[in-house]
Amino acid sequence: MWSKIVDEEWSTYLAHPQQNGPEVLRALLLAHVEVLLRHDRRQEAHQVAERILPLMSDDSAQLIEMADWLLEREWPDLIETLYARFHDAFHQNTVLMFRLAESRRKSGDEEHAREAAQQALQQVARNGPHAVWLLGISLENDGFFHWAEMAYRELTDVPKPDYKEHASVFISLAEMLHDLKRDDEAAKALRKLVQAGAERPLKAAIERETRQTIDRLAARAAFFEACHYGATGNREAQAEALRRSLSLSPIDSDTLILLYRWAQHDAGELLVARQKIAEAVAKYRQMIEATKTKIRESRSRLERLQTEIDLAQQCNQVAWLISNTEGDYQFALQCALEAHRLYPDSAGIRDTLARCYFAAGQVERAIQEQRAALEQDPHSPPLKAQLEMFLKHREKASSKAP
Known about the structure:
The protein is mainly α. 80% of the residues lie in helices and 0% in strands.
């Protein structure tokens, strides 16, 4: 049936190309491919997909959408065909070139993948280092972590990095590596920045650029070390890294959560962890009330907006801490809802909200919010992992139900 419909539309298009544009035919072919794939007829689907390419224009948005579609279905040969047909359009668009590079990398052609990526990177680099950093962020958001790392390291792994101007790039690199569970490398990237901050002239510049103190950055690096030692099973080294991190940043939620999990098999250590968490929650409560007062007393819209950022961060941090450990889950949920109200477009804040629903026993709502978070940031490894955990919990609970 599908073949007949497509053939009829194709004949109509060939007979009256000006009257009947290719859009309807493209849509029919795309739908036909999906039907074939659902029935495990991959070879036929590939043949139908080939027929779409002559119907493409050199419109960048259209080409990017098609490249993503082909990447998702793992048809590198068709991406090469698309590249051959629209060579100039690809070379004028770094987004397309990185799609080409990713396709080649996934198919094992590392040499030509890197060649395409380097061409695109050099094109962006003409606009300065800041453009390279933004490229890295864009590639990371698109899920092209390999190439995002290449862009970040273009600025961090040079003999004399410009710490005054590019300190935030080290943080971007480290946080991405942490999300990918490459915590040893994440710690090294951040320690490099911390060591540079030991020099007084650089310290002020780094803290101004990153809006974080050197101590806070050092604490984060120690947290990454603790994650690394946890993954390798070195509990003693993990405990030492946790202590270093908390000595520099005693209310950091991620570190306290890791301490809580580390202490689960030792009653004495668990008591200490619970005490530290209680102290941190009390501190966050004080900070939140003080920030709310500051918002009420703000004299300008700009001051109010800046203070609301602080409030959202504080609410998000305490909600994340409680929902991943123990405590007043309803208070955590209230804080998460407040943060989400202030910043509804933040996938990270919505991720926290989902965790709070889960902690409060509202598993279906947690899954709903986590899926919404993934719609906002579809390539985030931590967001994917949390959704998978929620789904496994639901499946396990269902299997135990009478």
